[in-house]
Amino acid sequence: MIIGCFALQEPFTPMERQFEAIREMGFDYVDLTDNHNGGTLGTEFNFSASMSLDSLPGKIREMIAKENLTLTSVCAHANLLDPVRGDSYQTPEIVKAIKLAHFLGCKQVITTEGDPKTDFGHSLTPDQRITVIQDKLWEPIQWANEFDIDLLLEPHGILTDTVPGMKQLLDALSNIPHGDRVGVNLDTGNSWLGGGEPLEFIKDKDLVSKIKHVHWKDMPEEMIPQRGTVYGCGMGLIPLGDGVVGIKEIVEALDKAGFNGPTTLEIAGVDAVLESAKRLRQWSK
After folding, report:
1. What is the model's pTM?
2. What does the alpha-carbon distance between residue 60 and residue 82 come to, in Å, rounded to a whole number?
3. Confidence of residue 1 (pLDDT cuts 50, 70, 90)
4. What's the rounded Cα separation, in Å, for the pair 167 and 185?
């Protein structure tokens, strides 16, 4: 099992410092987490860890190579249930992320439906949600096929957080040309928080073969009352194993299933990150 770290480790510092901090903690693998169109004031003045989707890929490659890191994924978490808006991260940004991943030599792009922010998105029926997501992912799937990129869906919304919802969405996407290449990035904390059971993703014979990446988060006991009402969170605040998600059992199930792909620690705080990595290595084969 490959254990990497997400590139949002220190607030108010640029991406170069995120990569440096990850190397200082002893990790060899990293994802490209936050990204944006064009430029931003925060990145221009070095207090925001975000990369432009319009950056020259060589600029990013140099940052990663400087710390002798390997990039495992480009994150393209999107809002797929709201109407198209100029300030929303949707189809064009996912396509850009796929192109960027290709030129960075990275084979995985991770997206999700997100939590709608408009009355339109919240009023969609279950069937309408599927149709809207099919529409927004049609073009990214074609680009993913063009560049041989794995486009992965992460539990981070009302559909993807549960096994039935994820399977329904994957089945619908399989009707799109090349849609059968869409896989799963299993986010342990998000799935649990949204009311799903991350272990069930691995036990399901149809889903387990589609899991190509794992995002590690554990959730504290005090989050139990919010379960099923919150769809996704950016990072975990406790070490893996200190919460109620059942991470050890998930690791053991992944090992039994033969998973040997990349995984990413989405955890805040150096001590929590290092303890989590230590426990993952103890629990894994």
Report:
1. 0.96
2. 31
3. confident
4. 13
Q: pLDDT tens-digit profile of 204-222? A: 999 999 999 999 999 999 9
Range of the structural domain that residue 154 is part of: 2-283
Reported as type and span, the H/E element at residue 136 is helix 126-146
Question: Where do we find the tokens 């893996």?
Answer: 240
CB atoms within 10 A of CB 238: 19
Average pLDDT of the chain? 96
Contact of 185 with 214, CB cutoff 8 Å: yes
Q: How many angstroms separate the CA atoms of 202 and 60, rounded?
A: 34
The contacts of residue 63 (CB under 8 Å, 6+ apart) are 15, 16, 19
Q: Are 212 and 111 in contact (CB under 8 A)?
A: no
C-alpha separations of 17 from 10, 205, 271 in Å: 8, 41, 18
Please list, in sequence order, all residues whose beta carbon lies within 8 angstroms of the beta carbon of residue 1, skipping any fewer than 6 positions away. 251, 254, 255, 259, 260, 261, 263, 280, 284
Q: Please state, for a pLDDT cut of 70, what percent of the chain lies above it.
A: 100
Is a pLDDT exceeding 80 seen at residue 285?
no
Which amino acid, residue 221?
A: E
Model confidence pLDDT, tens digit, residues 242-263: 999 999 999 999 999 999 999 9
How many domains are contained in the chain? 1
CATH code for the domain of 42: 3.20.20.150
Residue 129 to residues 4, 33, 118, 126, 207, Cα–Cα distance (Å)? 32, 26, 13, 5, 20
CB 113 within 8 A of CB 160: yes
> Is the separation of the CB atoms in 236 and 266 below 8 Å?
yes
Rounded-to-integer distance, Cα 241 and Cα 251, Å: 11
Predicted confidence (pLDDT) per residue in 87-131, tens digit: 999 999 999 999 999 999 999 999 999 999 999 999 999 999 999
